[in-house]
Design brief:
The protein is of the alpha/beta class. A hairpin with a 7-residue loop joins strand 3 and strand 4. Helix 1 crosses helix 3. It is globular.
Length: 504
């Protein structure tokens, strides 16, 4: 298990607490001095009080307003902390009554369980939270769902659920409220001007790709595909009869110079090439669109994490450029900006393909829940998504900085790739290193990473590792980088059994 140390600040609360026996006691709360969100620090302080015996099962917590005033923080931060503790099962809250410590909470606290929930889509509350996982998961592409404001999230769903239950079967021509909200979001964040009528809501990117394959009549035709590239998209194209022609990527992603006139379509991830992380320059974007317009080629732009960039220039989406409306099928998703559990994505096909995309989805029956669509629309309309993206971008930037700095310190000869955007970095390894074996060894030492093995089509393609940092606190970055570096150095030196893992 990877461990980290948290220093404590001097900010302390001394408040009277009325336990179930009504015997007056005193609660001392000391907030951990970390970079964690304030709500987490408050929740952690309560768990510490449980662990040290200051609180027992049945004890009442101070009113949120009282605790906020004593700590000198906003009442909202205390409410959010209590919400986390309720959801994690540490405390029980009832309308009109005090919030009290739950049965079993003391044992859970002493066992080292974390109070922070990870399932923001409404996981069932548990009487005792699960133990902290023994493996630090750096799988790429997963956001930190604990960063979502519980108040904003619940407000969107509460408002939606207060409406009458819809009696329409969802389809590609519905979800007008969400399509309208997405039109504004895409204009603000990606520079894409689209009418709500041009946007199609789908239950995931793969669903969108299936509809595009059918609408564009791609089975039996050639599609240029990034190599290494998104494995699940490649498998979907292959399973639908599309002939895949791999194209090696470089530091700037896919090069239009490598396309053939016979390519009927091209799939690319220009904002942050998946998985190597290259950002396609504006000149390449313009050349790709111009060449595709001349040959009638369909460009499939998977903008899976285009909202996240760190100190880098904003690059326009392909769809937003001249000629993009008639050439580009644009894909976006809620998986990276909120949670993959929503099963929510959006597709803006080229204008000529729009009717056929709708027909394909109507036949397949692949739709998004109308209730989910309305709740997410309200999340956007209220400004909650804008606030969320601003908040998580700052957090992800700090985590990326910590990981990249630690990796550079431990591995000065291995430059992390794709650090300007997205939620993961790639580490390129020597061609004679078995990256699958390296990833397995790192995982055995408590850090789950992915190798490039499953992403490449060419057996002689690049070797490397993918490290997602969105869910990794900065305090753990050094220890995690030490584990990764030890295994890589041992693999390169051919001394698997002789290395020592730092920080484990």
């Amino acid at each position: 298990m990877i461990e980290s140390r948290n220093h404590q600040s001097s900010k302390t609360s001394i408040l009277p607490v009325m336990p179930r026996t009504r015997t007056p006691t005193t609660l001392h709360l000391t907030l951990p001095d970390t970079r964690e969100p304030l709500r987490r620090r408050i929740a952690a302080a309560v768990v510490t009080a449980l662990r040290t015996g200051q609180l027992a099962a049945g004890d009442a917590l101070p009113a949120s307003r009282v605790l906020a005033a004593d700590l000198g923080v906003s009442r909202g931060a205390v409410v959010d902390a209590y919400d986390e503790l309720v959801t994690a099962g540490y405390v029980v809250a009832r309308a009109g009554a005090a919030t009290r410590v739950a049965t079993g909470a003391v044992d859970a606290a002493r066992a080292g369980a974390e109070p922070h929930v990870t399932d923001v889509a409404g996981a069932a509350r548990r009487s005792v939270p699960a133990r902290e996982p023994s493996v630090v998961d750096l799988s790429p592409g997963y956001p930190d769902t604990t960063l979502i404001s519980p108040r904003d999230w619940r407000s969107a769903w509460r408002t939606t659920l207060s409406d009458a239950v819809p009696n329409d079967a969802p389809g590609p021509d519905l979800h007008l409220r969400l399509r309208t909200a997405l039109a504004g979001h895409l204009r603000r964040t990606r520079g894409i001007v689209a009418d709500p009528g041009e946007i199609v809501v789908v239950p995931g990117v793969l669903s969108a790709l299936r509809a595009v394959v059918t609408a564009a009549d791609l089975p039996g035709r050639t599609l240029a595909f990034e190599d290494p590239g998104y494995t699940r998209a490649r498998h979907l194209f292959a399973s639908t009869g599309v002939r895949i022609r791999p194209i090696p990527v470089d530091d700037d992603g896919l090069s239009p110079d490598l396309l053939h006139d016979s390519d009927s379509a091209v799939y690319c991830t220009p904002a942050h090439q998946y998985p190597m992380g290259g950002r396609m320059p504006v000149a390449r974007r313009a050349a790709l669109l111009a060449a595709s317009a001349d040959t009638g080629r369909l460009v499939i732009e998977d903008d899976y994490d285009g909202e996240f960039r760190y100190g880098a220039a904003v690059l326009p989406a392909l769809r937003s450029l001249d000629g993009g409306r008639d050439t580009v099928a644009y894909l976006g998703t809620a998986s990276k900006i909120v949670s993959p559990s929503l099963r929510l994505a959006w597709l803006i096909p080229p204008a000529p393909l729009l009717p056929r995309v709708r027909d394909a989805l109507a036949v397949s029956g692949e739709t998004v829940s109308g209730i989910t669509a309305d709740a997410f629309a309200r999340f956007i309309e209220s400004g909650a998504l804008t606030r969320h993206l601003a908040r998580v971008s700052r957090t992800y930037a700090a985590r990326r900085h910590a990981v990249v700095d630690a990796l550079r310190a431990y591995l000065p000869d291995v430059e992390p790739l794709g650090i300007e955007a997205g939620l993961h970095v790639a580490l390129r390894l020597p061609d004679d290193v078995d990256d699958t074996k390296v990833a397995q060894e790192i995982t055995q030492r408590g850090v789950l990473v992915r190798s490039l093995d499953s992403y490449r089509t060419d057996a002689a393609g690049p070797r490397g590792l993918l490290c997602g940092y969105a869910r990794l606190p900065e305090s753990q970055a050094d220890a995690v980088a030490g584990v990764i570096a030890d295994v890589i150095r041992a693999a390169v030196a051919g001394t698997w059994g002789s290395c020592t893992t730092s920080g484990s």
